[in-house]
Write a structure and sequence with these properties.
The protein is of the alpha/beta class. The protein contains ten helices and nine strands. The protein has one domain. Helix 7 links the parallel strand 3 and strand 4. The longest helix has 28 residues. The chain is globular and about 50 Å long.
Amino acid sequence: MSGLKKLWQKAVAGFAATLLWLLGSLPLGFLFGFTRLFASLIFIGWSQRRRTSIENLLATGLAKTPEEARELAHQSFVSFALMVAESIAARSRITADNWRDFVTLKLSPEAERLLADPKQGLLVASAHLGNWEVAARAVSMLKPMLVVYRPFNNPELDRVFHAGRSNDRLRLVSRNDRSPMRFLHALAAGEVVALMIDQHVYDGRVQVDFLGRPAWTTKSVAMMHFTTRAPLILAVAVRTGPMKFEVHAVGPVTAPRTGDRERDAMEFTQRLTQEVETFVRLYPEQYMWGHRRWKAA
């Protein structure tokens, strides 16, 4: 890497660090008002993502007209921007002492029992709906958590942006350097391993039906469940108001086992995808529609 590129990466990271500090210190009302305005401007200016969102909403039938699709797409942009702003605010405001003031848990009895057992390792699948950052922070208050995330291409920016996300109970692992043994050790220690289940992938994938359309989806969650035998729940955090969330967790999720590992992975991933679809249909305005989820290859 050239010295000029390194210097540029450090400059970008320095700007990001200053911006994160500034946003984190703003009063919440001002922060969220600014965020909504900024999201609306991005929606107008980022034509490619806007078109993708509108096309996805129309193709799935969740929007009946282009006007309805445009409105839902706009709400989705605002929801994503709020997710970022809320996550920055949560770093200093949501603590082990007060997190229940912000987050209400809506768990199945079995999911609640699994989270309460300090010796039970647990797999959690989630989706890009509501605020998945707050979901991870809230669940980590009950059980230590290891989260797989997608890093930035700029390593300096990645270090700055994710430094405030992790603590002694919430650890981040880049999907580029994850080790199976790291996950096995976390599960053996009674921790949570969390992965996203709703993005298009090119490797290690199966094709499932999502909102009536074929979608390529990672099978890593299913394979980890088969290998470790750890119970798996699906959890999402729905926004109910300014810095107010409900974490819904269903499961443990199960699917028939036939001995055909590839077929079983597809069936299990389909079962998870159906749970994601249920929440997306309930809260379409909080889903990340700008992702090209239904690529053909």
